[in-house]
Amino acid sequence: MENTQNSRRDFLKAAGLTSLGLAVGISGFTRDASLKKIAPAVLKLEINPFIIIDTTGNITLVNPRPDMGQGSTQAVPSLLAEELEVSLEKVLIVQSDGMGKYGSQTSGGSSSVRELWMPIRKAGAAAREMLTTTAAKRWNLPAAECIAEDGKIWHKASGKSLSYGELADDASKLEIPKDPKLKEAKDFKIIGKYNKRLDVPERVTGKAVYGLDVDVPGMVYAAIVHSPMIHGKVASIDDAETKKVKGVLKVMKTERTMPHRTSEAVAVVATNWWAALKGKKALNVKWDNGDYAKSVDTAAYFAATYEAAKKEGVNFEEKGDFSAKYATAKTKLESHYETPFLAHAPIEPENAVVHVKDDGNVEIWAPIQGPDWAMRDVCGYLKIKPEQVKINVTLLGGAFGRKAYHDFLLEACHISKELKKPVKVIWTREDDITQGPYRPGMLSHMQGFVEEGKITGFHHHAIGESIVGQVFKGLKDDEADPWLSEEISTGNNKYQFGAASKISWTNVKTDIPVVWWRSVYASNFGWGQECFIDELAHLAKKDPLTARLEILPDERFKKVLDTLAEKANWSEKLPAGTGKGIAVFKSFGSISACCITVSKKDGGVKIDKVVSVIDCGHYVNPDNVKAQTEGNIVMGITAAIKDGITFTNGICDQSNYHQFNIMRLNEAPKMEVHIVDSGAVPGGVGEPGLPPVAPALGNAIFAATGKRLYKLPFDINSIA
Amino acid sequence: MAVYNLLLNGKKVKVDVEPDMPLLWVIRDFADLKGTKFGCGMALCGACTIHLNGQPARACQTPVSSVGKNDKITTIEGIGEGKMSIIQKAWIEEQVPQCGYCQSGQIMSAAALLKSNPTPTDADIDAAMSGNLCRCGTYDRIRKAIHRASEEMKIAVR
Lengths: 720, 158
Description:
The structure holds 2 protein chains of 2 kinds.
Chain A: H1 2-17, E1 22-26, E2 35-37, H2 40-44, E3 51-53, E4 59-63, H3 72-84, E5 91-95, H4 112-139, E6 146-149, E7 152-155, E8 161-163, H5 164-171, H6 200-204, E9 220-226, E10 233-238, H7 240-243, E11 248-257, E12 262-270, H8 273-282, E13 284-288, H9 292-295, H10 298-309, E14 314-319, H11 322-328, E15 331-339, E16 351-356, E17 362-366, H12 371-382, E18 389-393, H13 407-419, E19 422-426, H14 429-435, E20 442-451, E21 454-464, H15 467-472, H16 490-493, E22 500-507, H17 522-539, H18 544-550, H19 555-567, E23 578-587, E24 590-601, E25 604-615, H20 622-641, E26 647-648, E27 651-652, E28 670-675, H21 693-705
Parallel strand pairs in A: 4-5, 9-19, 17-18, 21-22, 25-28
Antiparallel strand pairs in A: 1-2, 1-3, 3-4, 6-7, 7-8, 9-12, 10-13, 11-12, 14-22, 15-20, 16-17, 16-19, 20-21, 23-24, 24-25, 26-27
Helix pairs in contact in A: 3-4, 4-5, 12-13, 17-18, 17-21
Chain B: E1 2-8, E2 11-17, H1 23-30, E3 49-52, E4 55-58, E5 72-74, H2 86-93, H3 103-116, H4 122-129, H5 139-157
Parallel strand pairs in B: 1-5
Antiparallel strand pairs in B: 1-2, 3-4, 3-5
Helix pairs in contact in B: 2-5, 3-4
């Protein structure tokens, strides 16, 4: 971040003082994004394009994907550096600021490389062509005799060269080529190759600047007392003890604005955060909780999901008449698979610095996944225009979906608007765990049948709270959640069931706030789908791998499973009490499969090894693909065997890491990740490795112990 | 409020704070060293790990008043004494961090381990490192980096 701040200054200097440069902008981040040149005159006005090559040869990229650990500050500039024929070190990175001209800027949906693959490369290739044309003209030589390499255009025969800086001014006068020639994959020097992340040194020396590390002159700190039942109203505030705490400046009512509703809260503002926290602990707030003890309750919620499973849902897709065929099927099975609510629990808690100034302008420093969404939310909340808001995105100390939900940011807006000072809001871990939003708990009601030893009938009834419905208020009662297409649709997951199949949905609503969590619904429904396929394979008396391959005609899925079988030595003879389980799932454009080996130990099982395979199409850095997949193995197993979030009578039963345990180093199994090089269009990397992990574990436990597990989380040390 | 003289990364630092303020907030907001992180406030996550006289300590549970003026406090900023330590280099070689937020604490715990036990086994690493949470899931690489640092330290000694 220190680097980023420096480069930000360099960038502004470049944009302001070096008006004569080549600038290529991208309008909208879609694969067919058209390229448009930003005129040098515009640069003076600081309407920043994405890519600037100035006359000193500096190359600046405005990165529209905040880095929460997924490696976007390497992946995105790599796309540019590759086409521009410069080393990665040459590209200065500036984080985009949420202004509309940068289009979509949210790290989410494993979208960085997927969405930027073509537009950034096209922009780089266009710039390369313009620089080449300019050099050729200056030399009065055919452009075909000139090549770009190492930040210069070279004339091959004579060996003479001109740097990009020397050419940028003249090049900027050319029309941008509409269809620049992209490099062929075989010529890639950066994409697909191992490269160390340049941001790692600052992350091991304590120099990286996360949201929590922002200091602004004149800043005050706030700790927030949230409603214990999330939606309660403040009945009374007794701040006598709080006001005795040295450093406490003010106790004030504030509000927690979630997308679907706003809760009351109380802020304790102090000269330092420790004082604010002490003041918070000393504060006595009485709450009017209405009926929330009933509606903020996970047992009641899950009871409603099991009730819903007894009825027909809304069809998302149906092939053949499943119900009729299921009714008459001879060899059939019905199961219910449950997944809990989960907190994201990034180690950096939610925090933000906001300064609502006297003139109404606002400056923000925050660890947020999407400055574009933050801009929308802040402008809507404060009723101001984007031109009045400056958003500085810091590094994110983990996010996993949580930091694209701006309740904590809007709290800072509310308090700063009142105080007209820069305010740093820091949530405690207890705020993070007890307040949500959470991954919704879900129920998968499964039905299926086999005919002649083959799985031919399959029904997945997905039941639970809809993120689309609650967060975006975008789901009608008679409509299936559209996000199922990315998750469990047969169009996505490619299973072909010979007789009939159905995907259906029932929305069971809750007052517990929900949001996307790493791999979204796939993290829930992968458990049901892949454990049930395993059950059906056993019902068909088939090896679980063979049974899957029989109903997966797709070549990429086959290759992923074949690779997994080989790398995990699927066919090896295992001693009694040891078992392997597999699962495969496609999400966010990538196919991932996982094989877990477990063995019985002291009444439970021990995870001996995890092998994951991913086909994410073209990728930027194989080491980062592996790192993300390793992270997904850890988070996937954590979600299976560590704590879920439960609410009893309106109160969250967990409060900190001693009750919401996450996997520790001593519990991390041996793991291997292998990449299938399909050369396909890039898929996601940050999330797709997660969904197959829990079902692979459940299936392994069945193989080792004969015990089929249906409900997450479970105690791995006690498999009765 | 009270004045405390601290020995922080070899430098004398004077702060005027409440006696019960944890060293974490003193270091971060009064000595302006932001590398030590807040994660849980209950010594459950290890993000705030520092060294107190060479021993790993959780800064979020260490009141400033419990620290004497001659007690040596070391943070991630002081671990390499101005240079990148062998451990930090090993972290880079193994490309350990994802978000990196917990890694200051991880490295401080690993440094204390390697100081007392330069050739740790996997079981030693388990025992020393299980107090440091990483939500990104970099544990496999942390283990590799500690083994790598251990090897590098042997070479450095020779």
